[in-house]
Design goal:
Layout lengths: L14 E5 L6 E2 L2 E2 L3 H15 L3 E5 L16 H11 L4 E2 L6 H8 L6 E3 L7 H5 L2 H8 L4 E4 L21 E4 L1 H15 L5 E5 L4 H11 L5 E4 L4 H7 L14 H13 L3 E3 L3 E5 L8 E5 L8 E5 L1 H12 L3 E5 L12 H12 L4 E4 L2 H9 L8 E2 L4 H7 L5 H4 L5
Parallel strand pairs: 1-4, 1-7, 4-6, 5-6, 7-8, 9-10, 9-15, 10-11, 15-16, 16-17
Antiparallel strand pairs: 2-3, 12-13, 12-14
The structure holds adenosine-5'-triphosphate (ATP) and 3-phosphoglyceric acid.
Length: about 400
């Protein structure tokens, strides 16, 4: 990576404003999946051990510039305290005189968690006044929030212009190294598996990856637009009529670029979107008109597994079916199992639902890298620059 990281600077005695992505699922005031908190710990430990006064800032949810009681960061700070095994102070605001006093009271190695930065309207507007307020708290800015790096907000981008030193954290560095290497110097054969709900959300990713991969596997709800593009009826399956021509152009681009293009050959159709629906497996040219395809079929899964086993590198974004319902989870599970069993395959899971799926199947520890970024990893894979990274100091 061509950006400086915390390993390139001296933080001893410095007030370090560290933006993390503590946007974790909350249930009844308790943290659900704590992956993102754990992922930030190496950076926090590094700062603590090197004598920084650590000020942590994050968003939680989408409170839209207002205080939302359920989205306060205190429960997250409590969980962090347990995981770190040291006291973590909490602020009721994210800037201002009271917060400054709390920062002034920090000793080297102390940790303070600020309130949800999205309680302020200026955050998402990247308001420079708010960015300056954040900057007043700090001597050094660290961005470790890879999951929010695609957002140009006051705490992810704006602040970097008002603090003399702006560097990446260790999580940010690792995410960019893994994804960056995959896209620029991939081990081959290189396979991308793209699933999820809509073609619309994956246009940029598919287009960019078609210039880089050896194999492209399409699954999930978006496959039906490709099935339609091949001239088959898709019944009540998810279909984006206005993207059929685009799907055709992707298949043509694959041919032109010598990319092996795989899409389902069979699908699991259902007469209802529920676990108790009547289901059957049909070839893609026999989808009944009043049924919908909610998963890949077993023949497709077998083909995908074979491609995975013969790959050196696989990037996976988006489930193969409606994996949240057990009846339609087999296609996604089969991809996860193939990745888990392929010892020689480096597997990169692109965050969001695919990360949730490998967790659900208890296979997370068998993946080589699970990104903490959903939208951020998607934008990175589209080849877009991430504003939260661009703003950091060059090496
Ligand atoms: N055949 C299908 N029909 C309808 N929905 C489907 C189908 N296959 C998968 N899905 C749904 O797609 C959703 C995931 O789509 P999405 O595009 O958000 O995936 P993602 O890329 O993993 O998301 P993220 O942006 O969070 O990483 C899941 O909730 C899943 O149930
Ligand atoms: O969950 C995420 O993908 C990040 O925390 C970014 O959240 P956002 O989509 O609300 O900006």
């Amino acid at each position: 990576m061509n950006k400086k990281s915390i390993r390139d600077i001296d933080v001893k005695g410095k007030r370090v404003f560290c933006r993390v992505d503590f946007n974790v699922p909350m249930k009844d005031g308790v943290v659900g999946d704590e992956t993102r908190i754990r992922a930030a710990i190496p950076t926090i430990q590094h700062l603590v051990e090197n004598g920084a006064k650590v000020i942590l800032a994050s968003h939680l949810g989408r409170p839209k510039g207002e205080v939302v009681e359920e989205l306060r960061l205190a429960p997250v700070a409590r969980r962090l305290q347990e995981l770190l095994g040291r006291d973590v102070a909490v602020a009721n605001e994210a800037y201002g005189e009271a917060v400054k006093a709390q920062v002034d009271a920090l000793a080297e190695g102390d940790v303070l968690v600020l309130e949800n930065v999205r309680f302020y309207p200026g955050e998402e507007k990247n308001d420079s006044e708010l960015a300056k307020q954040f900057a007043e708290l700090a001597d050094v800015y660290v961005n470790d929030a890879f999951g929010a790096a695609h957002r140009a907000h006051a705490s992810t981008e704006g602040i970097a212009h008002h603090v003399p030193v702006a560097v990446s954290g260790l999580l940010m560095e690792k995410e960019l190294d893994v994804l960056g290497k995959a896209l620029s110097h991939p081990d081959r054969p290189f396979t991308a598996i793209i699933g999820g709900a809509k073609v619309k959300d994956k246009i940029g990713v598919i287009d960019n990856l078609l210039d880089k991969v050896d194999n492209l596997i399409i699954g999930g709800g978006l496959a039906y637009t490709f099935i339609k593009a091949q001239g088959h009826d898709v019944g009540k399956s998810l279909l984006e009529e206005d993207k059929i021509d685009l799907a055709k152009s992707f298949m043509e681009k694959a041919k032109k670029n010598d990319v092996n293009f795989y899409m389902p050959v069979d699908v699991l159709v259902a007469d209802d979107f529920s676990n108790d629906a009547n289901t059957k497996i049909v070839p893609i040219d026999q989808i009944p008109s009043d049924w919908e395809g909610l998963d890949c079929g077993p023949k497709s899964s077998e083909i995908y597994a074979e491609v995975i086993k013969n790959s050196k590198l696989v990037i996976w974004n988006g489930p193969m079916g409606v994996f949240e319902l057990d009846t339609f989870a087999n296609g996604t599970k089969s991809v996860a199992e193939a990745l888990a069993q392929s010892q020689d395959t480096y597997s990169v899971i692109g965050g969001g639902d695919s990360a949730a799926a490998v967790e659900k199947f208890n296979l997370a520890d068998k993946m080589s890298h699970i990104s903490t970024g959903g939208g951020a990893s998607l934008e990175f894979m589209e080849g877009k620059a991430l504003p939260g990274v661009v703003a950091l100091n060059d090496k």
